[in-house]
Design a protein that fits this description.
CATH topology: Peroxisomal Thiolase, Chain A, domain 1
Number of domains: 1
CATH superfamily: Thiolase/Chalcone synthase
Helix content: 25-40%
Structural class: alpha/beta
Distance between the termini: 17 Å
CATH class: Alpha Beta
Number of strands: 11
Strand content: 15-25%
Oligomer: single chain
Radius of gyration: 19 Å
Strand order of the largest sheet: 3-2-4-7-1-8-11-10-9
Shape: globular
Length: about 375
């Protein structure tokens, strides 16, 4: 396998882009990535997207975007791994370069969600759950994560207020990220008194969706100082429904994906300087820390509180606000995570910069961690 470098990155702000089409949003992010990489053409395009055909009426995104970019008759396909779709596009782009198939590849995640009402969006997102065992019984993702949070509190004797640490750090980091959707501070009182959405999940325990697009250019390392390489990439799966898992509070796919990616990169969790978890819900941030080996079972909250997960903590997480505050344009999220990690390693994260990071990890979930894709990034 050949070395793979991130040559360029690009993103747009997550929010409501009501007057821009899917292709225009993607073209902006891709254009910024190509400008950053100082190239004008790529040999292949891999697109992460979950709901465009149903939400916008537009499927077959590969040739749509390739034509918009003026890339010519290149390989261009879209991938759907639910909320991990963007990470799946990054992984396929990585494999395409690492295998020697292509020299320069574009991975982009795109999603347009503001055109949907809440009921329609909830129904579309539920397609990432088990239609027969969960959706047929009216179990939305909100309800499933509420069950996980209830069980976590019961098993490990923690209280709802303890999860504030994750909401707080995400919102603090989003304050200085111009691409984040929720650029507002959340006090503990506001967190505790927020509207209950699905007990025990309240408003500040869950992420907002939105329109978004993020892109990266992958290719052979150029040898320039300040470069970033992807040194590990892994995807793993678990039972689609929570009820079929041996222990719903242990994310087996996250554990396996993390283990394999770290092995490929010849790294350990102790060497990770920045971590971008899939914190769609605060409970998932705790479960992710535990599954990846940063904290013992039931000690994810304690780790975050005592070791520190802020920009100056032992393990900075959600450096751009995470899904919780940057926002979660589902098909694009996995690419946003890689963009943010790359900017950290390039020391180009501005006010959100972590001191001297050398190794970063991103992890993206599809469904309730039924698909998990992990990437290890390193400074050249």
């Amino acid at each position: 396998m050949r070395s793979v470098a991130i040559l360029g990155v690009g993103q747009i702000n997550v929010g409501k882009h009501e007057n821009s089409s899917l292709r225009k949003l993607a073209a902006i992010a891709c254009g910024r990535a190509m400008k950053d990489a100082e190239i004008d053409r790529v040999e292949a395009v891999f697109i992460g997207n979950m709901i465009a055909p149903e939400a916008t009426g537009q499927g077959h995104l590969g040739p749509l975007l390739a034509a918009e970019l003026g890339s010519g008759p290149v390989e261009s396909v879209s991938l759907n791994a639910a909320c991990a779709s963007g990470a799946a596009a990054v992984r396929q782009a990585y494999l395409a370069v690492a295998s020697g198939q292509y020299e320069t590849v574009l991975a982009v995640g795109i999603e347009k969600m503001s055109c949907l009402d809440r009921k329609s969006l909830t129904k579309l997102l539920a397609t990432a759950a088990d239609a027969e065992l969960e959706v047929a019984n009216h179990a939305t993702f909100l309800a499933l994560n509420a069950l996980l949070m209830q069980r976590y509190m019961h098993e490990y004797n923690v209280h709802r207020e303890d999860f504030y640490v994750f909401a707080n750090v995400a919102h603090e980091n989003a304050l200085t990220n111009p691409y984040a959707r929720l650029r507002e501070r959340v006090t503990k009182d506001a967190y505790l008194n927020a509207r209950m959405v699905a007990d025990p999940i309240a408003l500040y325990d869950c992420c907002p969706t939105g329109d978004g697009a993020a892109a990266i250019i992958l290719g052979r390392p150029r040898g320039s100082r300040g470069g970033v390489q992807i040194t590990g990439s892994s995807s793993a799966s678990d039972s689609l429904s929570l009820q079929e898992r041996r222990n719903p509070l242990w994310l087996h796919a996250a554990e396996e994906s993390c283990r394999t990616a770290l092995k490929e990169a010849n790294r350990s969790t102790q060497e990770i300087d920045v971590f971008e978890p899939h914190d769609a819900f605060t409970v998932m941030a705790a479960l992710s820390l535990e599954a990846c080996g940063f904290a013992e079972r039931g000690r994810g909250i304690e780790f975050a509180r005592e070791e520190g997960v802020g920009l100056r903590g032992r393990l900075p997480i959600c450096t751009g606000g995470g899904l919780k505050a940057r926002g979660h344009p589902v098909g694009a999220t996995g690419v946003y995570q890689v963009v943010e990690a790359a900017l950290q390693l390039r020391c180009e994260a501005g006010p959100n910069q972590v001191p001297r990071p050398a190794v970063a990890m991103t992890q993206s979930f599809g469904g309730t961690a039924a698909t998990v894709i992990t990437h290890i990034l390193e400074k050249d």
